[in-house]
Amino acid sequence: MAVPELAPRRTFGGIVAVWVLAALIAIAVGIFSAPDWRAAWLGVGLGGCLIAAFAVQLWTGRAAGFTERVAAGVLGAALVMGVISLGFGLAALVPG
């Protein structure tokens, strides 16, 4: 017999937390890594965001929609990191 959830936890906060983590990682990689190594370190950072997304969604304890929430967190993290790395790439083109 299944027990209905009386007060389901909100899951959007966990997805946004992974996006914020991705932004912090992308900014740190853009500032502290050499331009030749930025793409490699962004890949490592995205892997860390994948692990963080799994951990956050497992912590919520809800099975329904688990895959969709993890996918939303990782896809959003990839987009956030892409936009920030685009900004660093465009900044590298400006002489000075």
UniProtKB/TrEMBL annotation:
Sequence intervals crossing the membrane: 12-33, 39-59, 71-94
**Which keywords does UniProt give here?**
Membrane, Transmembrane, Transmembrane helix
Report the protein name in the record: Uncharacterized protein
